[in-house]
Amino acid sequence: MPAFFDLEFWNAANPELWVAVGLILFLAVVWFAGGFKFALGALDTKAATIKADLEEAARLRAEAEAMLAEIKTQRDEAEIQGAAMLEEAKATAVRMAAEAKVKLEESIARRTALADRRIANAETQATAEVKAAAGELAAQLAEVVLAERVKGLKSDPAINIAVDQLAARLQ
What we know:
Layout: H1 15-33, H2 35-151, H3 157-170
Helix pairs in contact: 2-3
């Protein structure tokens, strides 16, 4: 049981009684001086501050979540845009490769045609040179053969006419 129910507690020589009386007087002075109101006001102020801080923290959290959602949206948009750019680059590369292939084939065809024309010109020129050389050789052989035949003979005007005609035809 508590000590203040004991008769010894209420004895004036008991120091615990005077401590209790001092405590009661102190609390009464604090009460009349407004200390409890001040303490409660300070506690209310502190509670209001804490509540304001909590509300600010909640607002900041909501703001951060909104920013996070916006950043995620921007990231998703950037990924979509990057994928689109990649697809466009691939399509461009395929198109450029096809164009390069066509240009290469055209270039090869032009060079082949040019080489064929040069070969045809060279063949025509070689044929003309061979014909000219054959004509000259035939003329020389004919001259030699005729000169051998006519060596012993006097010059025959028919042979002279035929040689002239042959020379004119060969040129």
